[in-house]
């Protein structure tokens, strides 16, 4: 039983099959200039209801860091949540790709930014060249605490930064999970709400190496081919990336996978709430469940082979621990059921 | 009347005279390899009671950013206060010189870090290569809110990071002001308390371009000549930098200047406290006074030609403003007296 | 008929099958900490006859740039051939990952460096911190012009830089092709000859994403986990990288594939030499053939669907063109034969 | 007797006096926003016959590296001579400030680039994102071998790069020396010939810290205040920089100083040519003389206290040495005469 992350699971068989099929072609154009890459552009344009420019890259860290480098110069600042993945889990890669650009961080419940907090932070950047020049806003949907921003919430944030000419980035490592949770269209969740560039992640939702940077403000994509190459995010046998993306987007595989993962998270959340020893720390919107439990329970279930991480949290009692559970497209339903049964027995 | 900063004042006449005198030599060795630079090393070793390696640089931003680059690699993190100068007023220069190294920020009263807060923050950096690797701690003395760390407080912070092999940097843009406030020795305030590298600032206290990076852990200085050059912090006619530093350190000019500035700050603080319309926001330890006043008073004194900055502060009433007043070695005492008189008249 | 590059071909079926097999495991440890990654370390240690530390990365550009970042600081220089891949085909990625470290370039026939030229270039770096500090030497084997360095030649170069404490990197994008050409052991071609770190490439020789940085001087690998992460070269579902590498190294797949590619290059070279309209510009040691032909011939065969690149060359006649032909593990032999037949018909 | 560099001499007394005078003002606006800085802008606009934007910086390395960062992104390339100061004497600072941007080097007599060589080099950059994208051309006037580019020659180079949208930078560390040698106007030597941004150096010609980045294409100066700050090139007590520049430009101090230095170089060159043991290696256009002499002569004069550097040169006989002599605004004429007398005695 493994709830540590969605990336401990493998590859959706349909996506793997697409890679095998792509290998049937004796040769193909290399360096992501294959016809498949063009088809990805077209397919994503269709999905987002607008001409986009999409670039296949290697991982979420690369996608985020590259996207930020396209909206923020070396002397600029990108405003983000203090627990955002770009700030805590990418080991300075955003700063590297931006050439020293700064992440300016703020707090906020559920790993979400509030417009007033953002406005207040921005107001501190008025003393000319001494501080970083505000250039970007980055939000994560679904957030690092498994919640979602609604289109209305996104728009409210975008409106704070738009008058300054700043651009908006969305880290969509779990884009599909947020989308099916919201029940809105991809357009509503992105460019219609003010998003300029998106890290469109599929690896966690069934891909092997399945990430793209998607530009809605396509002027930002000028020279992006050079950016992708100079950061080592360009793969030579690109057909295997485009094949993954096309299979992922075909027949709504991506949406179905996300629905399944979200649904398991709901089952898990409800089951945990039923225990008198566990309480949820955050609403469950997507495929992650955050909960507080006694350390003794944590130890007991881990000893029985259930894997999940403890997770930072303020205000715990001495014998408590905060935990993250992630469900995925491939998590066996019976694992959730067995784990809940285990918790019940220990409650 | 100008209390905006200590750097709006000019150069101590003795330091200026030393520069004129240095010009009498027809030629001198360039690029900071002059005999004066060697004398600076010797003189600072004497002052700090230990063999140090000192490098003259161009400004405080350069000194700090270079010092950090010597203790923190590109994938590392330097822990500091969220309002530290390196984080808010150096426009990403630390990140640039560190090659993307991250500043990890914390809150704390008086712009001071508390050991428990630091320890807690560090405890979040245990998930391997996903987060920046902790390499450095940077504290400012006197702090950005005009307070000082005592040697005991510095040691307590150093002891938090030492077991991890981390190094300690002190931003001493107002080093002399802190030193005379504490009444301790330079050694007690630095390496005896655990400081490995110091930005030793003199520009604000009477110099023109008068900054040095001082290594107590001299192994960190290996290749520092290259670091200084490659960051554009090396001056060709270095004799004019060493002349400044030697004059600054001679006959306790540096200490006398700092005492004068601190003393004026005390006068100013006491005078402001006497007003029923002004309250201090922070204890006054060095040459800066932070105070909250009604906007109407702020406007009235500014209209009469008194210059000082408003400064960010949480929890102000709607009609209040938080202000910073800086006194310097050259601030005329009568300006302080006249200003206080003005406040009294307006109270 | 496609001789443009070895990377236009797909994935060796045995390697693809290994990826499919790796997908059978429900979960695996992510971020290249899987058992497969450990097995790669062990297997490469066996192959190189020494304990190595090997890190799977995403592409050759990443492998090279990361390897260089481990041997050269921001103010350092890496000496290399002016036509080396790191200098001409990686769009500043080495400079980015090194944080500004400089590639110092030299000329040399066959894209090979000569010890005397290297020694002479190094002699220009004696004026202290004004120039980059020499830290690394990088050579490519097989070279960008399809030739090989012998172990003796490698040792001669290493001996030039060793007294300065410099480290030696080998770009082995076509390592297997060089190895089978030389008929020596992997140890003889690398660490026994003075190589400290190797970019071990397999993508061009049958992999999909199949590259590793291999450290012989394992002290250089300290903190490499952080380096890999902060450059965006870490893949979450790492099992699919380790599976590729293990399959590649099993049953001498890598050597057999390289032998086949090299052998086809010999066939091609001999056939071209037989034409009175074509002459080879370089000896053919590995799987690349470089030849000079009339533009009319170039146009004629391209018009018949043969794909290959023109390539920079000095001293061509006005109607001549210099061309590169690459053969791979998967190039159909009949394509070579048909192409040579075509040339004969046009001669 | 010291001919090692123009920067071993001190500061022109008129410039030093201007600094002393600037100190008479009790306070001034800091961070190079003083009225003096505005006057510099106006004065340079007058001198160049066009509205320029000028920024005072700390040194030539900073000026060059900052200027390049304004014309070349991280994935770009700046084309320059292989012996240019930016390539050989700035220890990777250009690469640092450009965020990894590459210097693409070429050979050429007299440290000058030829249009055909430049065009040929550029022709190699047509394979898309694999190589750096050409963004800038940098030339030095006077060159590192003491020669000058004429306006016609500059225009010929600019015309090679202009059709690609590339920008032209001039390193004017010895701008005045070149200008008085050419006898043309500042406009003719710069923007009229196609220069977009200039490093305008005065330190070597009588200043202490006297360098400016001057933009003729003023759109390039957007955000330059941030660039200057984030690279540590911003000085707080900026009045002492503007005072230097204004004094330098007043009453043609800069031109007179350069004429004097150039004239001494002519005397020195003629004297050396008269010796049967010395031959000039390059025409003498400005204030540097390059000559080849027997090592025995070199040793003999150095033993008598004459200081000058040996300098790299190809094709020397075994007993020969190539040397550089630099004259400055302050070099005593009798030193030149005495040295020539010494050479005569030893010939």
Structure overview:
The structure is a homotetramer of 347-residue chains. Chain A is 40% helix and 17% strand. Chain A has 347 residues and is α/β, with parallel strands linked by helices. Chain A has 2 domains: 12-252, 3-Layer(aba) Sandwich (Aspartate Aminotransferase, domain 2); 258-346, Aspartate Aminotransferase, domain 1 (Alpha-Beta Complex). In chain A, strands 1-7-6-5-4-2-3 form a 7-stranded mixed beta sheet, with helices on both faces. Chain A has a 4-stranded antiparallel beta sheet with strand order 8-9-11-10. In chain A, helix 1 runs antiparallel to helix 11 (239-249) and helix 12 runs parallel beside helix 14. The relative contact order of chain A is 0.17. The model of chain A has no long low-confidence stretch (mean pLDDT 97). Chains in contact: A-B, A-C, A-D, B-C, B-D, C-D. At the B-D interface, helix 1, helix 3, helix 5 and helix 10 of B face helix 1, helix 3, helix 5 and helix 10 of D.
Summarize the structure.
The first copy, chain A, has 347 residues and is α/β, with parallel strands linked by helices. Chain A has helices at residues 13-22, 35-48, 60-71, 85-88, 93-97, 115-123, 151-161, 175-182, 186-189, 224-230, 239-249, 253-273, 295-303, 333-346, and strands at residues 53-57, 76-81, 102-106, 133-140, 167-172, 197-201, 211-215, 279-280, 288-294, 309-310, 320-326.
């Amino acid at each position: 039983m493994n709830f540590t992350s969605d990336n401990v699971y493998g590859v959706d068989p349909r996506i793997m099959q697409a890679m095998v099929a792509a290998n049937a072609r004796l040769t193909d154009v290399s360096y992501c200039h294959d016809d498949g890459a063009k088809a990805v552009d077209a397919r994503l344009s269709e999905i987002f209801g607008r001409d986009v420019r999409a670039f296949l890259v290697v991982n979420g860290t690369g996608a985020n860091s590259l996207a930020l480098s396209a909206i923020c110069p070396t002397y600029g600042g990108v405003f983000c949540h203090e627990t955002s993945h770009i700030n805590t889990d990418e080991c300075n890669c955003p700063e590297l790709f931006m050439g020293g650009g700064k992440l300016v961080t703020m707090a906020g419940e559920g790993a979400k930014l509030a417009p007033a907090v953002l406005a207040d932070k921005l107001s501190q950047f008025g003393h000319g060249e001494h501080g970083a020049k505000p250039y970007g806003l980055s939000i994560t949907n679904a957030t690092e605490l498994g919640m979602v921003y609604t289109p209305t919430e996104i728009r409210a944030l975008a409106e704070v930064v738009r008058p300054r000419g700043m651009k908006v980035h969305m880290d969509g490592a779990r884009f599909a999970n947020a989308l099916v949770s919201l029940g809105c269209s991809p357009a509503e969740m992105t460019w219609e709400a003010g998003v300029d560039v998106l890290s469109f992640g599929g690896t966690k939702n069934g891909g092997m190496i399945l990430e793209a940077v998607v530009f809605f403000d396509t002027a930002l994509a000028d020279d992006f081919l050079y950016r992708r190459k100079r950061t080592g995010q360009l793969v030579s046998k690109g057909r295997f990336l485009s094949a993954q993306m096309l299979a992922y987007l075909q027949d709504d595989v991506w949406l179905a996978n996300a629905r399944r993962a979200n649904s398991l998270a709901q089952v898990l959340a409800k089951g945990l709430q039923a225990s008198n020893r566990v309480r949820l720390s955050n609403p469950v919107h997507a495929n992650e469940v955050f909960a507080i439990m006694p350390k003794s329970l944590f130890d007991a279930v881990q000893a029985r082979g259930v894997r999940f991480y403890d997770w930072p949290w303020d205000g715990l009692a001495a014998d408590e621990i905060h935990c993250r559970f992630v469900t995925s497209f491939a998590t066996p339903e019976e694992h959730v059921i067995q784990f809940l049964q285990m918790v019940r027995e220990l409650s």
